């Protein structure tokens, strides 16, 4: 058996599947680009079914060049934190059944605030789940809690600095 690792890389403009041997040599690669829709400033949304189809298509193409029984591990990298809900048939439950993420970072790239909301949510709407972060010099970013102490989706991103995070 020749051990292989399969990697999914899902980016903003396309998805790729790459297969490496155990020493890191690339064995196979497939890429599929998807369209970017013009959207208002501050909004970036894509249909998760598009991502999923690109992953399936590139995986099916890449594995044609290897014995799938040789694949001993799978890794995935995605362009940002996104949650997509699927049913028992691996189909997206419905458009909009995913969450978008906003992040504010400090000058060193550490997160200060992160938030999730439904696609299309305005930053001035009370629909965000917001978490504040502190930078622990020994361990890096560490959560200091949710806005107003609860994980509900009822906060305004634009007001994040005004909430109590204790």
Structural class: mainly beta
What summary fits the major beta sheet?
A: 6 strands, antiparallel
What is the straight-line distance between the termini? 54 Å
The total number of structural domains is 2
SSE order in H/E notation? EEEHEEEEEEE
Which stretches of 5+ consecutive residues score pLDDT under 50?
none
Range of helix content: under 10%
How many extended strands?
A: 10
Helical segment tally? Answer: 1
CATH architecture of the largest domain: 2-Layer Sandwich
What is the CA-atom radius of gyration, in angstroms?
Answer: 19 Å
Could you state the oligomeric state of the chains shown? Answer: single chain
Question: Which whole number gives the mean pLDDT?
Answer: 82
Strand content: 35-45%
The CATH first-level class of the largest domain comes to Alpha Beta
Q: Return the CATH topology of the largest domain.
A: Nucleotidyltransferase, domain 5
By CATH, the superfamily of the largest domain comes out as: 2-keto-3-deoxy-galactonokinase, substrate binding domain
Shape: globular
